Amino acid sequence: MADLDKALATQLANIEKRTGKTLKQLTKIVKDSGLSKHGEMVAMLKAELKMGHGDANTLVHVVRKAEGKGAAPAKGVSADQVLDGLYTGKKEALRPIHDKLLKAIRKFGEFEEAPKKTYVSYRRKKQFAMIGPATNTRVEVGLNMKGVEGTDRLEEQRPGQMCQYKVKLTEVKDVDAKLIAWIKQAYESAG
Question: Cα-flanking dihedrals φ and ψ of residue 187, to 5°?
Answer without folding.
Answer: -60, -50
